UniProtKB/TrEMBL annotation:
Residues 27-204 form the Cation efflux protein transmembrane domain. It comes from Roseicella frigidaeris. GO terms for molecular function: zinc ion transmembrane transporter activity. It comes from the Bacteria. It is found in: Membrane. One of its GO terms (cellular component) is plasma membrane. Its main location: membrane. It is a multi-pass membrane protein. This is Cation transporter.
């Protein structure tokens, strides 16, 4: 890859080189964890009748796809990494809209989820995602592609904690409203995270289209 006018190559970021062994290793670990918990939470969410667990499962699926895309573009130029981040940002927004729609459906159906299953699965997922988020913390200030992975992992850990709080609320109130409230919050987090990714990726695409911009700043 050709270098820019500064003393570092174009595409290098504060989070580290976009194709470093440490970055790729972190992505593979995150991919394995998210793919495994997607399958686990689909089964648990269906068994428990929980909108929050199913929303979290879909989030795990989206993140697994995102990590796979990140691995595929890790060694490419900044413009291609930014395009991949755009795809991930739009995917996150679409998943968030699906979560909000599913939440509305459960609200109309008046279903009551199983608090015990929600709490146990939420705790296991929280421990796994906290480990992944800690692993990816050093890359949070990287390019849009790196930042998107960090945002997804952070949102996952927050979502898992929220699922546990929803389980406690369902158990304490005997209603499904805590589950629905958490699912709605998770949908809102997805929308916010997707917008953050899109905004940074668009900026990087403009930067890639104007190679002299960085030298002029």
């Amino acid at each position: 890859m050709a270098c820019c006018h500064h003393d570092h190559c174009a595409g290098e970021t504060p989070g580290g080189a976009p194709n470093s062994p440490a970055w790729r290793r972190a992505l593979w670990i995150a991919l394995a964890v998210n793919a495994g918990f997607f399958l686990a939470e689909v089964a648990a969410g269906a068994a428990a009748g929980s909108a929050a667990l199913l929303a979290d499962a879909l989030d795990f699926f989206g993140d697994s796809a995102n990590y796979a895309i990140s691995l595929g573009v890790a060694g490419m130029a900044l413009a291609w990494r930014a395009r991949a981040a755009l795809l991930k940002g739009w995917t996150l927004i679409l998943f968030a809209l699906w979560v909000l729609g599913s939440t509305a459906w459960h609200a109309l159906a008046g279903s009551l989820p199983e608090a015990g299953i929600m709490g146990a699965v939420g705790l296991a997922a929280l421990l796994a995602n906290a480990g992944v988020a800690l692993l990816l913390f050093r890359f949070r200030q990287g390019d849009a592609n790196m930042r998107s992975v960090w945002i997804c992992s952070r949102n996952d850990a927050i979502g898992n904690l929220a699922v546990m709080l929803a389980a406690a609320g369902v158990f304490g109130t005997g209603t499904g409203w805590p589950d629905l409230a958490v699912a709605a919050i998770m949908g809102g987090l997805g929308l916010q995270g997707g917008w953050q990714i899109l905004r940074q990726a668009r900026g990087e695409l403009r930067q890639a289209a104007m190679p002299g911009l960085a030298a002029a700043e």
